[in-house]
Every structure is written in structure tokens, then in C-alpha cells.
Design brief:
By secondary structure, this protein is mainly alpha-helical. The chain has 5 helices and 2 strands.
């Protein structure tokens, strides 16, 4: 997602919201290209019963878009910029671990994916948050 600039938009073309913290449109990493890439990664890790690979991709893109939008809305712009700019000096492992735990907890409280069971929902949220946090680390 380095170098990517996206406007925080939902599928309907309006500003998406996952909490009361979002009150402005700003740069984020929930653009279509990033959503597809992360959803493809998730699709390679998680298998859903009853759906073929193409259907799974659509389902995972929906889930990833909701998760990324929630993350973009809660983080301040300087933290988001660590993902967007691929900076040399990012966060260290200790801060990354703490951020990962807190973001997973936050996203789980705000994003509901009722079409997934609890285990898959948790795995997908954790995987997406891990991708985001990992991209904020030193030299990423």
C-alpha cells in the first residue's frame, strides 16, 4: 500500500463510517487495489464451506473493506501515513505488538461479519490488522 492515496468511501460512494470518530474524509489505505490484495491473501488462508473461490473472494473483499475502513477511521493521519508512505523509520516490535492487540480488540468490537462464524471472523480481522501493523514497522 506504500504510495497509495485513497478517499475514505464506502461502496455507495458516500463517506463510510464505523464509529463516531470519523467526521472527515482523509487519506487511507482502504482503496480498491489494497482491498483486493489483502482479500486475496485472506482467501489463500481461509476456506469457507459452501462457496467456490470466486465467491469467497467477493465475501473476503467485503470483509476486508469493512475492516480497513474501521482501522482508517480510528487511527490519526500520522499513523496512517506510516502505511501509505512506506517510511524507513517506522514503529518498533514492542509498539507493533501492543498496537496489534488493541486494534484487533477495537475492530472486533466495531465490525460485525455475520456471514462468517466467530472463528473465521476473528481470523480475518486478525490477519487484516496484522498486514496493516506489519506495514508500519521499521523499514517496511
Amino acid at each position: 500500500a506504500a504510495g497509495t492515496m485513497a478517499v475514505l468511501l464506502g461502496e455507495d460512494g458516500k463517506t463510510a463510517r464505523c464509529s463516531t470518530h470519523a467526521h472527515e474524509t482523509r487519506r487511507g489505505f482502504n482503496d480498491s487495489d489494497t482491498v483486493v490484495k489483502v482479500a486475496t491473501l485472506v482467501n489463500s488462508l481461509v476456506d469457507l464451506e459452501y462457496f467456490n473461490e470466486e465467491q469467497e473472494q467477493v465475501i473476503f473483499e467485503h470483509a476486508v473493506r469493512n475492516i480497513l475502513t474501521c482501522i482508517v477511521e480510528i487511527l490519526p493521519q500520522p499513523i496512517i501515513d506510516l502505511v501509505l508512505q512506506g517510511v524507513e523509520t517506522g514503529i518498533d516490535d514492542d509498539f507493533a505488538e501492543s498496537l496489534m492487540i488493541r486494534l484487533v480488540e477495537y475492530v472486533r468490537s466495531k465490525v460485525s461479519l455475520p456471514y462468517l462464524d466467530e472463528i473465521d471472523e476473528g481470523r480475518i480481522i486478525t490477519a487484516v490488522v496484522a498486514v496493516v501493523v506489519e506495514s508500519m514497522k521499521d523499514g517496511k
